[in-house]
Records
---
Amino acid sequence: MSASKILLVIVGFFVLLGVIVVLWTVGSYNGLVGQKQAVDSSWAQVQNVYQRRSDLVPNLVATVAGAASFEKSTLTAVTEARASVGRVNMQMPAGAPTDSTQLAKFDQAQGQLGNALSRLLVVSEKYPDLKATTSFRDLQSQLEGTENRITVERGRFNEVVQSYNTAIARFPAMFVARLGNFQPRAYFTAQPGAETAPKVDFGGKF
């Protein structure tokens, strides 16, 4: 084989290798983009279900406040916790957070609101007339469903984050992730009893 043919073979090999590398890089990048979008979409759904709970608070407070001698401190705690959630939400990024501290603040604020609502529901047990109202029962059903959705969406979020974080850490895709500035996303940290949605059955015992 002549030197020119050998040179052509070598050049052709490197051209083919270059094409393969480019195609792999593009495919890896697009795959990571898709996973990142899935994380952000899941995060948006988490925010939606938390917002649904927050939106129920004014009606719940208004309904409960109509009960004679209802504990004002309990209503105040719920209102203040909801306001704290609003302040934290304003500080959250558009997409899923990369800062675990920031996510922890979000989770803490939501946890405080959940605890305040649980306390309100416990106190409501003392008011049979209040529990008998249609509006109160409707709010019970909506809140119970929302708490269940929160548990489900948090679990789904952690699953897609795990998949994404694993993808950007794998070799050799990690090089594409670094070039594309794909940052790891933070997980929700499980709290004691987090595997069970808060009980909000007005007709049962707490």
Note: The chain has six helices and no strands.
---
Amino acid sequence: MTRLTSAIVGLAAVVSFLLGVVVATTRPDHARSVLPARPNADAAAPFSGTTRTEVSARPAAPAAGLVDFAEVAAGLNQAVVKVDAATRGSDERPRGAQRWRFGDDPSAPREGSGSGFVIDASGYILTNYHVIEGVDRVTITLGDGRTFRATVVGIDPALDVALLKIPAREPLPVAPLGDSATLRVGEWVCAIGNPLEYVHSVTVGVVSFLGRKVFDQSLDALIQTDAGITFGNSGGPLINARGEVVGITTAISAQAANIGFAIPISQVVAVLPQMKRDGRVSRGYIGVGLTNVTPALQRALELGAERGALVHDISPETPAERAGLRLYDVVVAVDGHSIQSDDDLIRYISGRPPGTIASVEIMRDRERRTVPVKLTERPVQESAGNLSRQSNPLVRPAAAQQLGPLGLSVKELDAATIARMRLPLSIQGLFVTEVDPAGPARLARLRTGHVLLEINRRRMTSLADFRAAMAALKPNEAVAVLIYDQPSDQRVLATILPDPSS
């Protein structure tokens, strides 16, 4: 299978799939890198040992023909979050991503935003991997406006899912997870997210196809919907009429305005324990190319099997080659589980841990045989990015402690600076000399050349004032800063979520 190898998402973002049909739904700077994963698991408990506090009781099943998405949106909106990501400027970009630059400055930061939703009251959040791929900082804004610095707990580039954690002090509203396996084509669904940074936008449509293969022909089983999805929706929930999350919105068609795609939530739930425990997901692999057995192939090749997964390619130095599998073998069962199609085989093997031995039953020359195959780990596709190849493939630290918890440095104003910057004589404060391009001050739109006037209503007239203000910062609490912007000749009030102390 040829994977998506690159994607360009900018102000006119388009992700290329084979002939260029799909783009990612991150706003506007993150590219898509996806594949779905495993069969269904217990959707009511994404992983053990955590708490769940649902936003509200699930709405009762709607009467025939009646769907009240106003109630659904009211119940789940507070569990949907905005995900802001930033990375320090560099000519090196994550594979498969094109990030937005500020002007022509190659050292300028790349910033982007997407969506996510809370799945556990203690602060666990799901979003797309491509939203946070290769970034230095992830900031979460809750429905009530509070902001938190997020930690990346685990990633699955193949499924395009990331598990985040924020330090919640009290139980958060939670989006209840449903069972995507029960979805039907034509069923009503809605999407909640932050398209084009219009936060908490709700769109409604139907499921238009199930099991769509878009990026990876071997593993994809995406939900296709005509509910409106666009840049910034990436990572947000797709919700059924009962107020349950059935998918994670992840991509849109570049050729049609009403075709979007979501990762089935049951596949996500199946890998959550691994993501939380190991920080990554590993899947079993045998290294064969497969196709379904059809009546025409059965007659033409005299296969001796009416159903199964027909082997049409074997990669060198793989478990399949070492086990002696051959072209035209038909896999009819694994470990006693009947295999009806190539999807059956792929999903079953992907659900087995690497290193285990699978008992593969095949039909070869009309004879049934059993072949033991020792599984290895499924290789990461090229478009998944370099981070997924690391032993601990999480985003890089972003503290930049040399610039302090606000991610900036200041100096006292002197006559030369006042004259050079043409500052009014009435302005008294600290001159901002450097701003971390992926730091908290930059995310709050502070820039070199601003004058820092106050922090939490405390006037800043000396470096001693600034150091005292930094010492008084409280963990996970935003601070209000008043700055002077010389080009606009205005005072501006901003809030900054400081980095934790080192």
Note: The chain has three domains: 7-278, 284-377, 401-496.
---
Amino acid sequence: MGLVDIHCHKLWALDDGCRTPGETLQAARALAALGYTDVAPSPHAQARYPGGDEALVAARLDEARALLAREGVPLRLHRGAENPLDDRYLAGLDQGSRRGLGEGEGFALVELPFGEEVPDLAERLVRLRVRGVRPILAHPERCREFERPGRAAEAVALGAVLQLNLGSLTGRHGMLARDVAGELLDAGLYAIAGTDLHGPLAAADWIDEALSALEASCGPAAVRRLCEENPRHALRGEALR
């Protein structure tokens, strides 16, 4: 069925990801060449970025779909965003702005600060679930909060889904992130893997290396579950495995 990426920054001029339509096109071609068939671009939904404007993101998604169709790139694009798990995002849910994944938006990609502890994480996760959103926690291996023993398992027990950045397995995000990723992977806590692609430079090479590292560590069945089956289920709002 093909690989699915629910975390990347390939829509141009919305955040710190792809800057031009040309870069978006190059990134899309790289993903398609690696076997990806579906992608949910996830611009940073923050006020400091244009990606914080939900209407602009929707328009850019349509523009990107038209660009790929015109250029013959066989990659289906879906709705998505990377939301800071903060009071502003939670308040937006009460006002009808989910910034969720796919058309059903049953799941939403959220992120925590990299360098800060989040003592009220459990409360925030519960508030999301009460509002009918199942959180996918982006790159926990890069967040200080998940260096604490047992914290990742606690989040999963509360209904959160952990999303591995594939590049973490090769040291792309530093050695600490690599080590934490290995621990969470060994514990079976990840349900989804994503690229967190920010640009086309050497994308095909480093993603291919990371996919190979994942297969070497866990086997081909894990690659299918993390990179194909579960992200596809999440796009559809279905239960994960």
Note: Residues 185 and 218 are 8 Å apart (CA to CA).
